[in-house]
Write a structure and sequence with these properties.
It is built from 11 helices and 10 strands. By secondary structure, it is of the alpha/beta class. α3 (40-53) packs across α5 and α6 runs parallel beside α7. The structure holds S-adenosylmethionine. S-adenosylmethionine binds at residues 31-33, 82-86, 90, 120, 122, 126, 151-153, 156, 208-211, 226-228, 257.
């Protein structure tokens, strides 16, 4: 018996290649995320929890249930499948860029306010890193800032809004920031910190699907969209970047993840290095 067969035999629910194909197609049409073959096991692990929670007998029933009850099951289905890996000050050069270039230029131009959008904000580490950077960098400059953070996954968005993290998540943050921006939990909350209210209140969180038509009702000076489009196909990336262009001020910035690029996707930007792009 092969390792794959042995794994399949030990499963609680029968999960065939046809089930996987069907479910990844549904997922792709709603999220834009292309799912490679090696994710079959991940799909089983995450979705079998839904089969159990709904007290269904197998994946045939789950697929039928999902299709008949998209309004209620669509969200848990998508939430179960998104990949939300993130951390505070991930790719720190992007936060240095905010401080050294974006805020400094705004000050020079006597620009009153800087508008930032964290698109695909996951559990909040990215927008809170932006918020800490902007609070410090704008202090005493007369420059104000606004931050909107969006994600498709409603579970991670709720966690982002709560702003509660295990202590080890903030290990790499310098002492001054820890003191200024986090409260330590006590009693049953020992081992956790919470982002202070004044920082949490600076961020507007909202659910948003980046593959649907977007109207944020605003134009931004910086859009962070990092480690989100990595699994989108080319057409989906092209359409999304066109939507970003419509939401950026002239000469504004789009910041992507380290393994993402606008090469072959858009000519509207100049690359400044470190996956920072400036609108022409
Ligand atoms: C790997 S996390 C990246 C988090 C953060 N930007 C960072 O770089 O640390 C990717 C996030 O993109 C979100 N996402 C995936 N597809 C999306 C879509 N179609 N619309 C909006 N958000 C999406 C996921 O829910 C997930 O939270």
């Amino acid at each position: 018996m092969s390792a794959t067969d042995a794994k399949a035999e030990s499963r609680e629910f029968n999960f065939t290649w046809a089930h996987f194909e069907h479910l990844r197609k549904i997922s792709m049409s709603h999220t834009g995320i292309q799912v490679p073959d090696i994710k079959q096991e991940m799909f089983y692990a995450r979705l079998s929890k839904r089969v159990r929670a709904l007290r269904l007998n197998d994946f045939d029933q789950y697929i039928r249930y999902l299709e008949d009850n998209w309004d209620s099951e669509g969200t848990p289905f998508i939430n179960a499948l998104t990949t939300n890996l993130t951390s505070f000050f991930r790719e720190n050069h992007h936060f240095n860029f905010l401080k050294k270039t974006v805020v400094a230029a705004a000050q020079q131009k006597k620009q009153r306010s800087i508008k930032i959008w964290s698109a695909g904000c996951s559990t909040g580490e990215e927008p809170y890193s932006i918020a800490m950077t902007m609070t410090e960098a704008c202090s005493g400059t007369g420059v104000e800032w606004e931050l909107t953070a969006t994600d498709l996954d409603t579970d991670v968005l709720a966690r982002a809004q709560r702003g509660v993290y295990a202590l080890d998540r903030i290990e790499g943050i310098d002492q001054d920031k820890k003191k200024r921006f986090f409260m330590k939990g006590t009693g049953p909350r020992a081992g956790y910190v919470r982002v202070k209210e004044e920082l949490r209140n600076k961020i507007q969180f909202r659910q948003l699907n980046l593959i649907k038509p977007i109207d944020m009702g605003d134009r931004y000076d910086v859009i962070f969209c990092r480690n989100v489009v990595i699994y989108f196909d080319r057409d989906t990336k092209v359409k999304l970047v066109e939507q970003f262009v419509r939401h950026l001020q002239p000469k504004a910035y789009l910041i992507m993840g380290h393994s993402e690029s606008l090469h072959g996707i858009s000519n509207a930007f100049e690359g400044l290095g470190n996956t920072i792009y400036q609108l022409n």
